[in-house]
Structures are given as structure tokens and as C-alpha cells.
Design a protein that fits this description.
alpha+beta; Dna Ligase, domain 1; two-stranded antiparallel ribbon; homodimer; DNA-binding; Arc Repressor Mutant, subunit A
Chain lengths: 125, 125
DNA sequence: GTTCATGCAAATCGTTTGCACAATG
DNA sequence: CATTGTGCAAACGATTTGCATGAAC
């Protein structure tokens, strides 16, 4: 068996399953601290890495911000609020045809794409 | 006058005007060192920051990599080679209608978007 | 001669790693 | 008991900053 059970790893996964925001490692750490007074930030990073490796969660890399994490694994796009920094999923379906079009216009193989939208979230607009 | 003339800043701008790759601060530093033996990496970073602030160049933030820079200022998309890490511009026109569609599907204001395509560049495919 | 640019070293931020000990299976 | 998980501190890579000196205007 490659992985044993870990209370903190289970909690991370659970927190990500029950939030729509896209917390950073440090934000998760802060949210867990009440329950895990001796928790170390390194443990959070290590467990996030394991969960990503397991395919249970995804790392989201966005302009300027530290890495964020989410448990929604179907491909989707993100919107970043330029006022408050909030990150939200965008309810617009992923257009695979874009990849085909780029392939046609270049000599490259294109396997996927990511889109980040910038603007103001509902609270800020 | 807010900015004075600077040989190293001019050279940075010039190098970015004459390359299609998207160099990092350190790559620029290495390319300049032959001409500027006492150049400091901090100067490269400072000048890149000034050029971005002036709107002369753009900072390109891409998955995993350190920040990259380019002098092409018209909006365009990027493709990252998952084999060699090369970054290239994509000859597909920017679709502003995407922003409108996201606005319609949310309560957000959307001002722009960025797309990164992933795959294999011509040399690697 | 005031302001901006530079080199250098130190500081910072986010993240990773080494190591000794605790928990899991 | 063999292996994985954890805390802690130290190491790390990319970038920024403070400070004293040098160049531009």
C-alpha cells in the first residue's frame, strides 16, 4: 500500500469538497488550525501534493496568486476578480474545438487549454 | 522626468523586440552578460518592472515557469510545449465574444481573458 | 546638484526537504 | 516491524529591497 490513512489529508480533501472558493495552502492551514493545533504548514503542502498526484484534487495556477486548489476535476474555466482577488468557476462549457483550431493553424499538437477571465465578481461589480 | 536613459534597459527592450521566444529575467540576464560583465540580476528585474509599468512590454505568467516577458502587446494566446517547455504565440485571433458569454452566464463584469494551450511544439511533435 | 540607475548583499515569499519521532497497517 | 505521516527547522528558487555609489540631466 502506497498511502496510509491520515486525518489531516482527509480533512483537506473534505474542506475542498465543501467549498466553492479556491483556497491556497496557507488558507487551508489557517482553516484547519482550530482542529489541528500542532499542524504544520509543511504537512499541508505535502498532503496537497499527494492528493494532486492521486488525481483527487487539482492545483490551479493563477496570475500573481500563490497556488490554489480545488476538488472539481472536470475541465472548466476560472474568473479572477481584479478587485478582491476572488476566484470562481465559470459556468460556460469547455470548447475543445479551440484546440483543433490551434492545431490547424500551427505545426503543434494541442492536447488541452486553460482560460482565465478577468473582471469583477458579483460582490465587486 | 520620471525615467532617465539606461543602456541596460534599452538593451532589454531591444532583445525582446528581436526574439520570438519568451525569455525569463534570468535568461535575459545570461544573454546580456557578455556585453555587460558587471550587470546585476536585480537590475534586470528592476528594468523589466519599469518597462512593464511603461506599457512597453508584458509579463507572461505561465504554469510552473518563472515569469516570462514579451514585447508583443496586442492580445494573443500562448502555447506551452509540455515536452521542452518552449512558449510560443498562437496565430489564432482573440475572441472577445467569450467575455460577453461569461458575463451573460454570471453576475460578473468580464474585461478580458487569457488562454494557454498545452501540447507539443513543432520541434517536439 | 537633484534625481534616477546600478551593484551587491540581505530580505522576502511561497514552497520543498532532511531528519528524528509518531502513527498506521 | 516496515512503511508512511508529521513537526520543526533549514534549504530553496524566484523576486524584491536597502543602501551606498555612479550616471543622467
Amino acid at each position: 500500500m502506497k498511502y496510509k490513512k491520515s486525518r489531516s489529508r482527509d480533512l483537506i480533501r473534505d474542506m475542498l469538497d465543501h467549498t466553492v472558493d479556491h483556497p491556497t495552502a496557507h488558507e487551508l492551514f489557517d482553516r484547519m488550525r482550530p482542529d489541528f493545533p500542532r499542524l504544520s504548514l509543511a504537512t499541508v503542502y505535502r498532503n496537497l501534493g499527494i492528493l494532486v498526484e492521486q488525481g483527487a484534487i487539482a492545483r490551479v495556477e493563477l496570475k500573481g496568486n500563490p497556488e490554489r486548489y480545488e476538488s472539481r476535476m472536470e475541465p472548466h474555466y476560472h474568473l479572477i476578480c481584479e478587485n478582491c482577488g476572488a476566484v470562481r468557476d465559470v459556468p460556460v462549457s469547455v470548447d475543445d474545438e479551440l484546440d483543433t483550431r490551434v492545431e490547424a493553424a500551427t505545426d503543434c499538437r494541442v492536447t488541452r487549454h486553460e482560460i482565465q477571465f478577468f473582471g469583477l465578481c458579483e460582490s465587486c461589480s
